UniProtKB/TrEMBL annotation:
This is 2-isopropylmalate synthase. SMART domains: LeuA_dimer. Its cofactor is Mg(2+). Homodimer. The keyword Amino-acid biosynthesis applies. It comes from Ignatzschineria rhizosphaerae. Residues 439-561 are annotated as: Regulatory domain. InterPro entries: 2-isopropylmalate_synth_dimer (IPR013709), AIPM/Hcit_synth_CS (IPR002034), Aldolase_TIM (IPR013785), IPM_Synthase (IPR005668), LeuA-like_post-cat (IPR054692), LeuA_allosteric_dom_sf (IPR036230), LeuA_N_DRE-TIM (IPR039371), PYR_CT (IPR000891). Gene3D superfamilies: 3.30.160.270, Aldolase class I (3.20.20.70). Belongs to the alpha-IPM synthase/homocitrate synthase family. LeuA type 2 subfamily.
Amino acid sequence: MIANPSTKYQRFVAPNYQNRTWPNKEITEAPRWLSSDLRDGNQSLIEPMDVEKKIRMFDLLVECGFKEIEVGFPSASDTEFNFIRKLIDENRIPEDVTIQVLTQSRQELIERTFESLKGAKQVIVHCYNAVSPTFRRVVFNMDKEQIKALAVKGAELIKAESLKYPDTKWTFEYSPEIFSDTELEFSLEVSEAVCDVYQPTPDNKVILNLPATVEVSTPNVYADQIEWFCDHITRRDSVVISLHTHNDRGCAVAATELGLMAGADRVEGCLFGHGERTGNVDIVTVAMNMYSQGIDPKLNFGKMNTVVREVEYCTDIPVHPRHPYAGELVFTAFSGSHQDAIRKGLSDIKDNPDQFWKVPYLPIDPFDVGRSYEAVIRVNSQSGKGGVTYLLEEDHGIELPRRLQIEFSKVAQMFADGEGVELTSDRLYQIFEAEYFNAKPALEIQTPIDIEEDTEGNTHMKLTLKTPLGDKSLDATGNGPISALVNGVNTLFGWDVDVVDYNEHARSKGSSAHAVSYVEMQIDNKTLFGAATHANTSRSSLKAVISALNRAIDKGLIALK
Ligand code: KIV
Ligand code: ZN
């Protein structure tokens, strides 16, 4: 890079439209959408789509709800021509869908374009020519009059050609290319001249598409350009103002949204922002942004994963894992504090299902785009207790007491560090099971267990404990089964262990009608947990004590002697 970029790059001089009103406007309804995936997306792919992929893309776009679909540049290649013929000949275009084709302003191209469309019910014919100063000078060496004449000629040829096919409903579209980098007055002059040819009416409008072919400034400048154009075009009620933004500065979504606020009626773009160079505007994001504001976008991305898979298949380009609304990671929290907040937000929504969606870190309900909640909270070596707790509870019905959440999240982190990968919900459960339910079995209670309560409320317990030193008979008393067992092992092995907390709950998932018990034990000034599950609550609590003791033996806190 050079030290002083101002010697090489000129700042874009913005129109600074003082009558602008768009900053006070809001987007309140969906625009008309036009997908150009089958043109831009296709032409800008390393591996262009073959007819089979084009059909899949077309069907996908129809399924997502697009009513206007650009199907190609039929005069540019036989593949595009044949694809369009296939759509028409095989009746693949639904009644309420209008196809659009692109052409340049040349007689032979226009004739070939119309030939490809024979028999179509409704078509938008889109003609464009470059009008910007750079193109006029560098590419065409033409003056303004010549450029305007080219646009008018194209319109005349298209209109004349369309008259040969009266059974098709024709709509005409014109784009002054690189509108974003052209004198506004000249774009307007050429567009007016094109409209003079087409003679649009409120019932038969012309589409004026105003492309930011290359994004040259901040989105507010594009919005000013659009509002200026909307205010100055005559026959405003007979034209549809269409936006076509590219993403050279990474602002295509913002430019489109501000362009809609500035008065545009229609948006051209691609799924996930495919298209030349940095791509066209990403229609998925613009539509989902509307949805997140409570506006029906008139497109349906309820099966987002399918849309991602299909687009990846057709384009052979992966969707970025952080792509808004669609990326693998966008509804995912690894960070403990985020997980905790999400967990609380989700349970708040569960408790108050009629309130508006307000869940920390989740702008929309992942469920609405076909994502499951399991994928939201994920655990890696940097995660905190929130995620671990959430996954065990949601997926496995294990409701850890608070201090056990802290203890087990450290165990989980150790595994995540060791394995160097994210821990799935099932792996997490396996680790919990191994650590607590199946804690290395130094001690094991043998059945039968003889428990009796006397008239003063004391519990007398007799059982056999299997130990590595051989079977031991335990005969003890306590104020309940747990304390009897603890007293018994203290006597048998000369320990001084105590139970400081006990929790239990019925297990709602994973297996039916089981109790899950958790004991927190004090052993040699340290506390540690045991956990167990059993169909019988009392057995479950005793097993939890044994689980804690086994963990303590394994960690060398107590020894068998
Ligand atoms: O970006 C552009 O200017 C285009 C035109 C063909 C409308 O794609
Ligand atoms: Zn474009």
